[in-house]
C-alpha cells in the first residue's frame, strides 16, 4: 500500500527515474520488516507456548477418543459377525444331525 505511491513520488516528483521506482518497494519492505520485528518483540512467547502445548494435548486426547470409538465399533462388528457365524454353524450342525437321524430311521 505504500510501495507504489512512493515509487511514483520518487520517480516523477523527485526525477529519480528507475532508481525512484526501486526506492518505493524497498522502503515498503523495510517498513514491513520493522513491523514484524515489533510484533515479534511484543509477543508473550511463554503464553503462546503454553497455549500451543495445551492445544496439542487436547487434540491428542480427541484423536485418542476417536480411535477408541472406531476400534470399539470395529470390535462390535466383529462380535456380531462371530455371533452370526456361530448361529449359522449351529444351524448347520442341527441340520446335519437331523439328516443323520432321518437316514438312521430308514
List keywords for this structure.
mainly alpha, 3 helices
Structure in words:
- This protein is mainly α and 106 residues long.
- It starts with a helix and ends with a helix.
- It is rod-shaped, with a radius of gyration of 38 Å.
- The chain is built from 3 helices and no strands.
- Helix 1 packs antiparallel against helix 2 (18-42).
Short description:
This protein has helices at residues 3-13, 18-42, 45-105. The chain is mainly α.
Q: Characterize the largest beta sheet: strand count, sense, and whether it forms a barrel.
A: none
Order of helices and strands: HHH
Number of domains: 2
Helix-strand category: mainly alpha
What is the radius of gyration computed over CA atoms, rounded to a whole number of angstroms? Answer: 38 Å
Number of strands: 0
How many helices? 3
Instruction: Report low-confidence residues grouped into runs of 5 or more.
Output: none
Intertermini distance: 102 Å
Mean pLDDT: 89
Q: Looking at the structure, what is the overall shape?
A: rod-shaped
Helicity, as a percent range: over 70%
Strand-residue proportion: under 5%
